[in-house]
Specification:
Layout (H helix, E strand, L loop, with lengths): L2 H8 L5 E2 L5 H11 L3 E5 L5 E6 H11 L8 H4 L13 H11 L3 E6 L2 E7 H25 L2
Parallel strand pairs: 1-2
Antiparallel strand pairs: 2-3, 4-5
Helix pairs in contact: 5-6
């Protein structure tokens, strides 16, 4: 299974924040959308980075109580790891494991086509395993 199949089911909507949004505003956005990360985009929609719950926690550990007034551009991850729509789910999972990340923006050229989370990928793998098990059971039941 490839990433485009996941995006087809879940949709390609990606939540973005502005680099000058406060961390409090970012936290509100993440909570409202029930997500763990958002892209940080320039006014034209170009990706500047990604900000996750982990980035916020690290900021709080280093900056203390004033963290909520910092700007997204101060805590975001600038070096964003991305994948393409034809990346296999197993490859994306391996990349997430190796890099210890939970979200991968999906790019077509320079355009963001969606974003997948570790939860999206695990769900897809479970569904695929269940389908394969059902097909194998059917094959065994009808092969004799």
């Amino acid at each position: 299974m490839v990433i485009s199949a996941i995006l087809k089911r879940k949709g390609a909507q990606v939540v973005s924040v502005n680099p000058d949004d406060t961390i409090h505003q970012v936290a509100v956005t993440l909570a409202q959308h029930r997500i763990g990360a958002a892209l940080v985009s320039d006014p034209r929609g170009g990706m500047l980075g990604i900000i996750s719950e982990r980035d916020i926690v690290r900021g709080m550990a280093g900056q203390g109580p004033g963290t909520t007034q910092l700007l997204a551009k101060h805590l975001m991850t600038r070096s964003v790891i991305t994948i393409g729509p034809e990346t296999r789910v197993t490859e994306a999972l391996a990349l997430m494991t190796d890099r210890r990340i939970r979200h991968l923006p999906v790019l077509v050229g320079n355009q963001v086509a969606g974003m997948v989370s570790i939860g999206d990928l695990v769900k897809a793998r479970i569904e695929q395993a269940e389908l394969e098990a059902a097909e194998l059971k059917h094959y065994v039941a009808t092969a004799g």
